[in-house]
Design a protein that fits this description.
alpha+beta; Aminopeptidase; 3-stranded antiparallel β-sheet; 5 helices
Length: 175
C-alpha cells in the first residue's frame, strides 16, 4: 500500500521517492539541520545509502516518509515508521530545510499525519525521540500533544497515546 498524499492549508505531503534523494542531501548539508541527530552524515556514500534505504523501505502498509512541499518547492519531510526501522513502536519525525524553520511548517505537516496514524492505521501510540537541546523539535512535539517520558540514550522519548489524541480532537469539535 502506497502511503496516501495529504494537504493542509499551506502544504502538500506526498510519499518520498528516490528522485527526492538530492533534495534530502542538500537539506542535510545545510548548517544546523543535523546538529541534534545521529547518523552517517560525515560519510557521503553512507549518507546517500541511508536516505535511499529509508526511502525504499519496505515499510508496513500506510507507513513511510512524506515530502513536504509548498508551491512545488521541497521544504523537507515527515515520517511515520517503525522505531529504528524495526519497531514495535511507530515513530513520528520531521526534518526541514533551514529556510522553512520558525513558520509552523513542521507542526502543520506532522499534525496532518496524526489522523492517518490513529484513525486509519489504528496505532495505539506514536513516539518521537528528541535531543533535549533541540528546542524547536521539543516545541513541535508539545504542540502535537506528545509528552516527555523516559530517556533513550541521549534522546528523550516523547509519546502520544491514541486515546489522548482523540480526547483533544473531541475537545476541538466542542462549541
Amino acid at each position: 500500500m502506497t502511503p496516501p498524499c495529504f494537504r493542509t492549508t499551506r502544504l502538500r505531503l506526498r510519499p518520498r521517492r528516490l528522485e527526492d534523494t538530492e533534495a534530502c542531501l542538500a537539506m542535510d548539508r545545510e548548517p544546523a539541520v543535523l546538529r541534534h541527530i545521529d547518523g552517517p552524515w560525515d560519510d557521503a556514500a553512507a549518507h546517500r545509502a541511508f536516505i535511499e534505504a529509508r526511502t525504499r523501505g519496505p515499510w508496513p502498509a500506510g507507513l513511510g516518509y512524506w515530502v513536504v512541499e509548498a508551491g512545488g518547492a521541497f521544504l523537507g519531510w515527515v515520517l511515520l515508521i517503525p522505531e529504528d526501522a524495526r519497531g514495535p513502536e511507530v515513530e513520528i519525525g520531521w526534518r526541514l530545510r533551514r529556510a522553512a524553520w520558525g513558520q509552523g511548517i513542521a507542526t502543520e505537516a506532522a499534525a496532518a499525519l496524526l489522523p492517518h496514524a490513529f484513525r486509519r492505521l489504528g496505532l495505539p501510540r506514536i513516539i518521537a525521540d528528541i535531543n533535549p537541546a533541540n528546542h524547536a523539535s521539543l516545541a513541535v512535539a508539545r504542540k502535537l500533544g506528545l509528552r516527555p517520558g523516559a530517556w533513550q540514550g541521549r534522546y528523550l522519548r516523547h509519546a502520544l497515546e491514541r486515546a489522548a489524541w482523540q480526547r483533544a480532537e473531541d475537545g476541538k469539535e466542542s462549541p
